[in-house]
Amino acid sequence: MADVKPRIKLDKKDVAKGGIIEVKTLVSHTMESGQRKDKDGKTIPRKILNKFTCDLNGKTIFSADIESAVSANPYFQFKIRPEETGTLTFTWIDDDGSKIQATEQIKVA
C-alpha cells in the first residue's frame, strides 16, 4: 500500500481561531468484499479499508469505521474547527493492518 497516494483537498490552509476548514479526501483502494471468485473459482480474500482517522497534532478530530458496503476508492468530506496550528494526519487502515497515510499543514491565526 506504500505506493498509494491519497488525494487531500482543504478549502483553506490558513484559518482564524474558531474558523472552519472543509476537508475532502479520496484514496485509491479496490475494497474487495471477500465474496467474489477469481477465474479459477477461488474466493478472493476480503481486503477493505476498515478505519479512517484525521488527527491534528496527534489528537483525533474525525474518525469513521468503514464497512464492506463502501465502494472502491472511498471519499470523505467533512468540516473541522481547528484550535491550533499543526499537522493534519490522515490514516486509512486495511484489514491486514497496513496503513495509508498523508499529511497536510494548517495554520490557525
TrEMBL record:
Q: Which domain of life is it from?
A: Bacteria
Q: Gene3D superfamilies in the record, alphabetically?
A: Immunoglobulins
Instruction: Kindly give the Pfam families that the UniProt entry links to this protein.
Output: SoxZ
What residues does the Sulphur oxidation protein SoxZ domain cover?
13-103
Q: What is this protein called?
A: Sulfur-oxidizing protein SoxZ
